Amino acid sequence: MIDPMPAPLPPRRCRARLRASAPLLGLAILLHGCGDADGPRATADPERGAELYGAHCVSCHGGPVGGDISDIPPRHNAEGHTWHHGDCELVDIVLDGLPPREGHPPMPAFGDRLDEQDVHDILAHIRTWWEPDQREHQQQVTDQVCG
Fold it and tell me: Which pLDDT belongs to residue 38?
């Protein structure tokens, strides 16, 4: 059984706005979301993402084939479970890392080496490994979780 992910936070771009905003404006941002259809996902570059994935991710997470949904660290291909999570959750995990959990090593933070656009480019690359129904499901999760 896969351990559940921690409860999602507002997207990284929202958290900064929430801290910098007056409390009521921050609440409005949280309730109405910070996403924008022409944001990083819409402009992501899967070719650049392939280069970044090769430099930062493949050594732990593997490539486009092989693996299993229960692999630790998880595979990002169609055999893994990355497509079960929204973009904002994945961006936060990559940039901020995850602490160790029972049976799971820590995920190091890459925020000192990558920015949000870099992660969206990486996600655009790994999406090319997913089946159409997985991409559709992941978009629905992103819409629900990331607002």
Answer: 53
